[in-house]
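Listing 4. Sequential folding, example run.
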Amino acid sequence: MAKICVVGIGPGDYREMTVRAVEVLNACDVIVGYHVYVDLVKAHFPEKEFHTTPMRRETDRCRLALELAGQGRDVAMICSGDAGIYGMAGLIYELRGEDAAVEVEVIGGLTAACSGAARLGAPLTHDFAVISLSDLLTPWEKIERRLECAALGDFAVALYNPASMKRPDHLKRACDVLLRHAGPDTVCGVVRNIGREGEETRVMTLAQLRDYEADMFTTAFVGNSQTRVIDGRMVTPRGYRDV
C-alpha cells in the first residue's frame, strides 16, 4: 500500500530529531517539504529524491506528496517542529479524505514550545497555551480573544509567528492584550533560530517584550503570575516544593 509519513524534524539541528524520524527518512523513497526545511536535512540524507515548494504553497506541496505516494512510492512530508502542531499532518488527512489507497502515519517531533522553553530554562512547567500570531489563516479578532482568555486564565503562553515583514506590529499588539490582565514586570523570554545557526535567547519583562523586534524565526514566551527568574533562567514553578 502507498504510504506518506508526515515527519516532524524538530527545530533544525539534526541531533534534535527523534530516532523514529531519522529511521523514516532513511527508509523513504522521496522527501517533500518547504525548501527551508529540506535544506536543513538534505546533507544528512544525500541519496534521497527531494521535492520542494515555496511558502504559501502548502496545498500544492501536500497534493504532490499524495500524487507521489499514489505512484507506489514511500513519501516523507517533512515539517519543522512537530508535524501536527501548525504542520502539514492535518492538511494531508483533509486532502486524502477517505481514500484508503494511501496510508498516512504522523511522526511526532520537537515543537518550538518545547525546544525554545528548554533554551530559556523551564517556563512551561505548569499549564500553558500555544498561540500563533499569524492572521493569514485566523482573523486577528479571534487571535485577540484567545490571548485574552489565556491571560484571564493565568496561563504561561508560547507565541508562534510573532512578526514578519507584512505584520511587524503583531507582537506589540499581542502584548497590549496581555497587559490588560498581566503586569508589565511579568517574566518573558524569546528564542530566535532555535537549533540553527545564529541561535539567540533573551529573558525580559512583558513591557520589554512589547518593544522587542521579533521576526518569523522567533518564538516568544510569556510567563504566568508565578514565573520568575532563577540564575538568569525563566522558571514557572508548578508547586512541587509546597507539597
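-- end of first protein; second protein begins --
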Amino acid sequence: MAVVKVNKKKHIYWAEINRPEANNSIDFEVMEMLEQTLDDIEKNGRTRVFVLSGAGPQFFASGGNIKAFSTLKTEEEGRQMAERMTAILKRLETGSFWSVACVNGEVYGGGCELLLAFDFSIASKTATFAFSQASFGLPPAWGGLTRLVERVGRSRALEWLGSNQVISSEDALNSGLINKLSITSELTRNTWEWALGLSRVEPDLIQELKSGSKFALDHPREASFERELDQFARFWASPQHHKKVADYLKRKR
C-alpha cells in the first residue's frame, strides 16, 4: 500500500508515503491513497490535525514518479494528471483540520509542491529541498508556483525554480518555506507534541481561521476587517464559546 496510516488518536491522523524503494515518489497509487485518506478524515469528522511523513530515513517525497508519468504524452493527458493532484492539494489546503508535513528527508519537485499545500511543516535539520521541475523542462504543475510566491516572495521563488539549487533546512526555515526544525532523532516526538497542541482547536474554528486568513490575502483590508467582526460575533454567540467561558470561570473559583 502506497500510503499507510501510522496512527490515529487524540484527534490526530498520521499517515506516511510508503514507497522508500522509489524515493517516496508520487504516482497514481499515491494519489489514490491520498484521496482515500482525505475521504476518511472528512467522513469521520473527528480529525483536527493531519500529519504526513515519508517512510524510511532518506526521503519525504521526491516528486512525481517519472516512470509512471512518462506514458502521458499529450497536453490533455498531462493536464488531467495535474488536475487530479491539484484537487487533492486543494482539499488538503481548505479542509477543516490543521495539516502538518513532517519532513524526514529530502524533498524534490512535486514533493515541494505537496509540502506547500500544508498549513505547517516541521523538518529534520538534515532535510534538503529542491524545486527540480525545470530540469525536466517543466514549470510546477500542482499549484506550486503560486503557493511558493505566496510563501517566500516572487524573487526568491524565481531563483529557486530557475536554478534547481539544493536548499538547506536552515535556509528553508529562514525564508519561511517551513515553520520548525528538529534534530532527526526527535522529529517524530516533536511533531506529535506540536500536533497535540494544535488539536485543542475545534474543526469549525480551524475552518474559520484558515478561510479567514485566505480572505485576508485576497481582499482589501477593510473588507477583511468587516468579515473578521462578523465571524467573531458568530463564534461569540456559540454554545462552544459560552461553555469554554463557564469552564474557565469555574476553574478560577
